[in-house]
Design brief:
With 60 residues, the protein is α+β, with helices and mostly antiparallel strands. Helix content is 40%, strand content 13%. Strands 1-2 form a two-stranded antiparallel ribbon.
């Protein structure tokens, strides 16, 4: 069910659905981060890299 909610990342008002839990702007930022990591891991030499190496040691 859709409901009006504040984005947990930026506090913008948006319509929360079962598939979208952040606003459109934050979703696009997350998607860009995902694609960056995805294409990094697709390279042959990067398949066995550790998570700390991908994040530079910065884990949330």
């Amino acid at each position: 069910m859709n409901e009006l909610s504040d984005c947990p990342n930026c506090n913008a008002l948006f319509v929360k659905t079962q598939f979208r839990i952040v606003c459109q702007e934050c979703f696009l930022v997350e998607e860009k981060h995902f694609e960056t990591v995805y294409y990094f891991l697709r390279k042959r030499g990067n398949k066995s890299v550790a998570l700390k190496e991908i994040t530079g040691g910065r884990l949330k």
